[in-house]
Every structure is written in C-alpha cells, then in structure tokens.
Write a structure and sequence with these properties.
alpha+beta, Serine Threonine Protein Phosphatase 5, Tetratricopeptide repeat, Alpha-Beta Plaits, Hypothetical Protein Tm841, Chain: A,domain 3, six-stranded mixed sheet, four-stranded antiparallel sheet, 25 helices, 17 strands, about 50% helix, elongated
Length: about 600
C-alpha cells in the first residue's frame, strides 16, 4: 500500500524508529570515529542528540507536521552534541523551515523540504568537507528530489534513496584519506544511514525497535590519528534576537576549527574545537545569552579510546580538588561543576582557572553561585565510557551538601547495561581527592570492581577533613551563616574549623583564638585527630594563600614523610563559601599499612 502523505504523527513515529536504531549503534560509531579527530565520541554525541529529541518530543506529539517538525528542531538544538550532532540538528531546523505552512506533506513537498534542510546543513559549517555526513546527506536529499518528480509513494522513494545513501557511505573513504588509512567509513555518515535504516525498517515492518535494545558491536578501525592541534570540543547555546551567524563564524574561525553553527536568528547551537574555550564563550556572549556550556577534553577521550589501561573507569565531579598531576596520571574523568558571577557563567577549572576564580571572588560585586552537574552531564560521560570500559566508579560530594550524587544516580539509571558504582564520599574538597586516590590505586593494582568498591567504602570511613576559615564573610554572602554569627566570632577573635559529620553534614569541629601562628596551631589540631601508630596520606589545600599551604605541608611532611603529603588549591565549590585565606587538611588512615 502506497504512502502518499506524512503528517506530524507519522513524522514522530518514523523519526523515533530511526533514533532508536542509531542509539543501538552507539558503540560501533564510537569505535570507527577518526574524523575530524579520533576522539571516539561520535556515537555518544549522536546518541545523546537523538535521545534528547526523543525524550523532549514524546510528550509534545502534534498531528500538524509543521508544528511537529518545529518541536523536533527545537529539541535538536537543545540536545545537539558534537560535530555530527550539530549538523544533524541544523538539518532538522532546515526541514522545519522547508515545510512551513503545511498540515501534511506529499512527496514533492517533502523533497523540497529536504533540499532546504541540505542547504541549511552546509551553511552551518565554515569549511564543509566532503566524505562526511554532509556528503551522504546531500546524495540522499538529491535522490529524494529526483524520485519525487515521478513517484508519489514515500515507501518507494525512501527505499531507493536509502540505497543511494548506502553507496555514498561506502565511498567516503575515497574522499577522505584518513578514513582509507583507518579502514573505516565516516562515523557521522554511518550514523545518518543508521537513522534512515531505522526509518525504513519501521515502514516495512511497522514495529519500533525497543528503546533498550542492546548496543551493536562491530570491528574497530585499523589505527588512529595522533592528537589534534586543538584540545577541547566546545559547545554552547546562544539565545538572542538577531544572531548574525556568518559574522559569528568569522570570529570563531580565529579560535579553532570544526566550527558548526546550527539554528536560527533567535537560537543557535555552536560547536568548535579550540584551545581556549573561555574566549570562545566570551565571543558567543556578544550575540546573546549563552547557556549549556560544554567542554570535552579530546586528548583524554583519545587516550581512553586507544589506550584504555584498565577495565574500570573512575569518575569524579570537579570538587575533588586533586592536583592535576594525579588527574592525568590515573586518567580520572571529571564532570565539572558550573558557577556564575551574575549573568556570566563558567565551567569549573575549564573556562575559569582557580587563580581567575579568586580574583573574581575578591573584585566582582556579584557573589558567585555554584550549580551541580546535571544528569545529562553525567549521562554523556557515562555513555562515552561505556564504549571503552567494562564498568565505572563514580565518587561525589555528600548527598546532604549537594544534589550532585542525585544527578549521577539519575544518569546511571538510564544505562542499566553499564555497571556504575556510585559512592557518597562523605567528605569534601581534598577529602574526596584522597578517596579517589585510593580507588585509583586499587584499579591500578588490578583489583576487581567489587574489591575496589570495598576499598573505597573503607576509605570513606577512614577519611577526615578539617577546614580553617579566615573569615565568615563569604559564608554569610552565600547565605550559609547568619550575619549575627559573623559579628560574634569577629568580636571574640575566633576562627572556625569545619568538618563533615558521619551523617554527611558540614559542622563546626573547633575554633582557634586569634590569627597568630594559625598554621602551626591548625597542624597540631589535626595531628591530634590522627590515631597513634597509623599510617596516613595527607592532602592540604589552600584558598589563594600558597605560602601558608606550603608551610602546613612542610609540617606534616616532617612527621609523616614528603611522599605521604601533597598540596592543592581549594576550588570554587568550597571556595565560594570558605573565601580567600582558608586552609584545609584531609587525612586518610591506611588500614592496610598499619
């Protein structure tokens, strides 16, 4: 039976079928991803983009195809991730533009709409490259347009055009040498063909692939290119009144490559590869309100994809305040906290360095606000890791202090086939860092998932932190302490020491009278908390007072050995409340070395 028209409901059903096909191919798409950089995340980015579309449109199904396609385009811009995801989003924006004014469309109207969509997709890139998703999309759209001039049956047109898309996909290695060298087709183009195949399968069988269909595994590429010129895959959403996309493209072209700007004059999704994400976001802010900032370290992704040393991935949020050398050495994956000064938003430790944070905190009239990573942030990270590791351990702030753990829990529930061990660290800052280090050492030693989890839980029980505040001013600004208490402590010359209770709450542990010799007195206070005869690992953090931090580390190193201490800096998550001048000491009692 011929299909002579498509309305909003048919668009929703067929698109959902295509989406589920791509999601089931996520792992394979990651493994064949070598262009524009071999960071092995094309499958994750396309799956995230399309899953976001499915989730957002499921409750907004329209019978009118104009309205339905507008809902799809809007959801695509919100969820677009990665180069191919952004191109696909722009294609859907163009399709929505091409069918404006129609309640339902026939084959010729559909053909005109996909031609508009094709043009939109090409216009989104500063430097379009053939042999990619663009080429396959173009060949498919042209085939649809040619067939629609003599055929009035969607089933026949889509089946024939799919064959053309498959052939164009097979030809991509002839157009990009990097694909030929790796022995693969373009991953983004393969994902687009998967989308078409899912749609075709639904047309022929009338059955939707289950949303939880197991991921399909296939061969990997023969080899991978070395790390690219640019380190960070950077994305954001711009909301404005008259976004000049060509002008924005020209400005961003000075900062990196792989630039895709999808969207309209009022809403645009920006994607680029750069070494300066902060400057890229600042450039975007000139065109409207910037939200949804996302930065991925492509060098780390490439290392995971092509040199995964262990089967267990280790995930933390950026509040752990570990020195960068430990993050790199143990390949620890950080999901960043967001923070804002007024209407200016930052990604912790990526678009705002620690030094820049302290400068802003002292001079900006707006007291900063921090926000936990979203479930979507964690889901993207977990999805990527699921294609390169057998399991993951995810260690975070206490549930009583932040919703970060809940975000991670929500995200992990969406990947039931990928084992994720969630850990409430019951400490903060460098205390979390010590728990993470114990997990990293367990993984490096070859411990199993369960053995590592046992060691982490023991580390949580045996890790303690004490933070000496230089002032309560910043805790008052953040609404954590009443102004009256600040006045009392200031009048009495008291300096508060905080700790985390066994229940996960931030509570006073003691006070120091006066500021004189505060480093030595904090050292003695913490040393007296360490059980006699126990070996410990000590982490010291400072809030823009490095000299005091180094002096405190030296005191502990004299008694416990230099190799059992390290110094780091308090990050924004604690710094917004602790303020400059704060000092922190955490220690982990090593039961196995008693």
């Amino acid at each position: 039976m011929a299909i002579e028209y498509i309305d909003g409901i048919r668009l929703y059903r067929t698109l959902t079928a295509g989406i589920r096909r791509v999601v089931s191919r996520e792992e394979y798409l990651n493994k064949i991803n070598v262009f524009p950089v071999p960071d092995s995340d094309t499958g994750t980015n396309m799956a995230f983009t399309l899953t976001t579309i499915e989730e957002k449109i499921a409750s907004r199904v329209q019978s009118n195809i104009e309205d339905m396609s507008a809902v799809v385009a809007d959801a695509a811009l919100d969820g677009a991730r990665g180069n191919s995801g952004a191109i696909l989003a722009q294609f859907l924006v163009g399709f929505a533009e091409g069918i404006r004014g129609h309640l339902q469309i026939d084959t010729r109207q559909f053909a005109r709409a996909v031609q508009t969509a094709k043009a939109f997709a090409y216009e989104a890139l500063v430097s379009p490259r053939e042999g990619t998703i663009l080429t396959v999309l173009k060949e498919w759209a042209n085939s649809v347009h040619h067939l629609a001039q003599r055929v009035n049956d969607f089933a026949e047109i889509l089946a024939t055009a799919l064959d053309r898309a498959r052939q164009a996909l097979e030809d991509t290695p002839k157009q990009l040498e990097v694909l030929a060298q790796a022995g693969v087709v373009d991953a983004g183009a393969r994902g687009f063909v998967d989308l078409l195949e899912g749609i075709q399968d639904y047309i022929e069988r009338g059955v939707l692939l289950a949303a939880s269909e197991p991921r399909i595994r296939d061969q990997e590429q023969k080899g991978a290119e070395p790390e690219g010129e640019y380190r960070y895959c950077t994305e954001c959403l711009i909301l404005g009144n008259a976004i000049n996309r060509p002008e924005l493209q020209a400005h961003l072209n000075e900062l990196g490559n792989s630039i895709v700007i999808a969207g309209t004059k009022t809403k645009a999704k920006v994607h680029l590869h750069t070494n300066d994400p902060a400057r890229a976001f600042d450039t975007c802010r000139a065109y409207g309100t910037v939200t949804g900032e996302k930065v991925d370290d492509m060098h780390q992704q490439q290392a995971d994809a092509h040199d995964a040393r262990h089967s267990i991935a280790l995930v933390v949020d950026s509040t752990s305040d570990l020195p960068e050398e430990y993050i790199d050495r143990y390949r620890i994956h950080q999901v960043p906290v967001r923070l804002s000064f007024g209407d200016k938003h930052y990604v912790d430790k990526v678009t705002l360095t620690i030094d820049e944070f302290w400068s802003e905190l002292r001079t900006n009239p707006h007291h900063p606000k921090t926000s936990q990573p979203t479930p979507g942030d964690f889901r993207r990270q977990y999805q990527f890791l699921a294609t390169h590791y057998d399991s993951a351990l995810s260690i975070h702030l206490p549930q009583k202090l932040s919703g970060t753990y809940q975000s991670a829990q929500t995200a992990s529930a969406s990947l039931p086939e990928f084992p994720i061990g969630l850990v409430d660290a019951n400490t903060l800052s460098v205390g979390i860092g010590l728990v993470v280090l114990e997990a990293a050492r367990a993984i490096e030693s070859g411990a199993s998932f369960d053995e590592t989890m046992t060691r982490i839980q023991r580390a949580v029980k045996n890790t303690h932190i004490y933070v000496l505040l230089d002032t309560l001013e910043y805790a008052v600004r953040g609404g954590r302490v009443p102004r009256s208490k600040q006045k009392i402590t200031s009048w009495l010359g008291l300096y508060v020491i905080l700790t985390v209770s066994p229940e996960g709450a931030l509570v006073p542990a003691g006070t120091l009278w006066g500021r004189r010799h505060r480093v030595k007195r904090l050292f003695r206070f913490v040393r007296d908390k360490i059980p006699a005869g126990k070996q410990v690992q000590v982490g010291i953090v400072h809030a823009d007072c490095r000299h005091d931090g180094e002096a405190l580390q030296e005191l502990f190193a004299r008694e416990m050995g230099q190799e059992r201490t390290f110094l780091s800096t308090i990050g924004p998550a604690l710094g917004v409340h602790a303020g400059p001048g704060a000092l922190g000491v955490a220690f982990h009692i090593r039961e196995d070395e008693s």
